[in-house]
Amino acid sequence: MNKQFLVLALFVATAMFSSCGEPKFKKLKSGLEYKIVKKGKDGKQAVLGSMITMHMKTMLRDSVLYDSHKMNGGNPVPAQVTKPAFNGDLMEAIALLSEGDSAIIHISVDSLFHGRAMPEFLKKGDVMQFVLTMVSVKTEADYKKEKEEEASKQIGIDDKAIQDYLKAKNLKAEKTPSGIYYIIDKTGNGKHATASDNVKVNYKGTLLDGTKFDSSYDRHEPAEFPLGQVIKGWTEGIPLLEEGGKGTLIIPSTLAYGANAPQGSPIKPNSVLVFEIELLKISSGKPAEEKK
Q: Is the Cβ–Cβ distance between 130 and 48 less than 8 Å?
């Protein structure tokens, strides 16, 4: 066998081996295409009702639209496995995965938006690519128990951080049964809000280290919103103030954003928040448009 023929034979054999080893896309009746590029080791199967966490990268052509590694604080995305809401729903593919699996999924935007208006950057016929890694699969009961244990532990961590903050600042504060610390700097007219009221406030929000993350003063406009549609720490804490009054709320993370910090904000997962608030007005009736 001459050298040229040997090289050709090796090339063909290598190509055949590579093509056999590379997983191919499978197409479901709905039109969704997927392939599992890595199998986990005896991982739990995702079934209806499972609570899962997964790393996800969403791509359109050469653009990355979302990447949980970079846009979710490096944390996997939590979700519950539900029945597919329409043909081509991402849930169809998720229900085929087990813990530890990695997969690539192709979904037509026509199916994904299912008759709804699409963003301008999408065109009919476009295909979205989802790269998923199933990090964990738990039963709903196990997931709930785990979150309760995490919350209980976090309550202790937050409380110590708040007490250290008060000591360092030489501040005296009252504490509610739920763990909010508050300081009344100025009393008002004696009227207190309820969770069903609308309020108008001026406020500044900072982290315990002093980092400012939001301020109505900077916008030169008070915020108006239904008190029942904000973080729990505000729903419970603002009624501690009187209309026309002013105070400081120090809110543990479990009553703020918890582990789900707002994207693009200085707020990190499990951050304690400090708010200086002026309660300007309390009103009831038809909910005002939320501005916060």
A: no
pLDDT digit string, tens, across residues 245-272: 999 999 999 999 998 888 788 999 899 9
**Helix (H), strand (E) at residue 91:** helix 90-94
Range of the domain at 249: 149-283
pLDDT band at 125 (very low <50, low <70, confident <90, very high): confident
Half-sphere exposure (Cβ direction) of 245: Cα atoms closer than 13 Å: 23
Q: Which of 138, 169, 192 is the last residue of a domain?
A: 138
Domain membership of residue 15 (yes or no) is no
Distance CA 35, CA 53 (A): 19
What is the rounded CA–CA span in Å between residue 273 and residue 57? 30
What size, in residues, is the chain?
292
Residue 82 neighbours by CB distance under 10 Å: 13
- The whole-angstrom separation of Cα 150 and Cα 99 is 21
Mean of the pLDDT values across residues 273-278? 98
Distance CA 179, CA 191 (A): 23
The overall average pLDDT reported for the chain is: 88
How many other C-beta atoms lie within 10 A of the C-beta of residue 250?
25
CATH code (residue 75): 3.10.50.40
